[in-house]
From TrEMBL:
Gene3D superfamilies: F0F1 ATP synthase delta/epsilon subunit, N-terminal. One of its GO terms (cellular component) is proton-transporting ATP synthase complex. It is found in: Cell membrane. The gene is atpC. Keywords: ATP synthesis, Cell membrane, CF(1), Hydrogen ion transport, Ion transport, Membrane, Transport. Belongs to the ATPase epsilon chain family. GO terms for molecular function: ATP binding; proton-transporting ATP synthase activity, rotational mechanism. This is ATP synthase epsilon chain.
Length: 88
């Protein structure tokens, strides 16, 4: 199965980038899960946590506020006014 190429950026820096097998983010319409092969989408982020299942195992969590999520051709870009990695 293919992986997603993911970038999580805040207004002033890149927070995380790499390959992931799944992305879950909170939007104004509710939580959305993205897997490889997902249809293109553009969604407005709600304040909350972005959860990434890293390719090969493991996970990354980030807190993201005010921004958007874009999916196209297995590339996920999350742009937030403020974002930071969550420890643990």
């Amino acid at each position: 199965m293919a992986d997603l190429t993911v970038s999580v950026v805040s207004a002033d820096q890149e927070i995380w980038s790499g390959s992931a097998s799944m992305v879950v983010a909170r939007t104004t319409e509710g939580e959305i899960g993205i897997l490889p092969g997902h249809e293109p989408v553009l969604a407005i982020l709600a304040s909350g946590e972005v959860r990434l299942t890293v390719a090969g195992g493991g996970s990354v969590r980030a807190k993201a506020d005010d921004g958007f999520l874009s999916v196209e051709h297995d590339t996920v870009t999350i742009v937030a006014r403020s974002a930071e990695l969550v420890e643990g």
